Amino acid sequence: MTAATELQGRHALVTGGARGIGLACVRALAARGAAVTLLGRNAQTLQEVSRQLAAEGLAVAAVAADIARPEDVAVAFAQARAAHGPIQILVNNAGQAVSERFERTSADVWEQMLQVNLSGTFHCTQAALPDMLQGGWGRVINVASTAGLIGYGYVTAYCAAKHGVVGLTRALAQEVARKGVTVNAVCPGYTETDIVREAVGNIMKKTGMDEAAARARLAERNPQGRLVSADEVAATVAWLALPASASVNGQAIAVDGGEAAA
């Protein structure tokens, strides 16, 4: 079996699949032979990305949904099944981060962070898991964050939600361990994504730093002194989807240059 056929016949759904880590995961899974559905909130963006991927020779399906709304998720997952069959690999990548001092964090922001980062993971996993249990094989891969392993100032709501994702991962892994399904989390450090670009903008606004200095402040948390690439995260996600990773279950794997180990 070649690398291009390792996931042949498997249907993978990637949330937040139109950009950043999600888009890198779509490419990595498709390159290994999976039929991929990307899910996002903006239908127009999904169509544009689907055309771009088609030009690269990757045929994907796209479905629109707000993952914080279980009724939206149910409809989108039904559409995904109609395109590619039962969902056997779920990458819960969609997420948002808002930076604010704890005493200034509103109840609305708190709920937003929980709904998108934690409840969205819950809704999508509940929607996909029956397919995996029925087929006796499945992979749930949650893109959490080093914020699910350690604490960061000024993002308490985000940290709380991502710690919840890691807890969900570990608990569900125990429930499905004897059913052919694995549940794992990938925890990137600061990665070249829109979230980091927004963080850079916030640092510049609040400190007066230029862009290079703001980026360096984020990169310095990584013992390797750099930002992580989306492709590096996607390679770890793809590895967890492979048959060879069947014994890896309930893990939270940091992709962070060693930050969480310090």
UniProtKB/TrEMBL annotation:
InterPro entries, per database record: NAD(P)-bd_dom_sf, Sc_DH/Rdtase_CS, SDR, SDR_fam
Protein's name in the database: 3-hydroxyacyl-CoA dehydrogenase
CDD domains hit by this protein: SDR_c
Domain of life: Bacteria
Annotated GO biological process: monocarboxylic acid metabolic process
Family as reported in the entry's similarity comment: Belongs to the short-chain dehydrogenases/reductases (SDR) family.
UniProt source species: Bordetella genomosp. 12
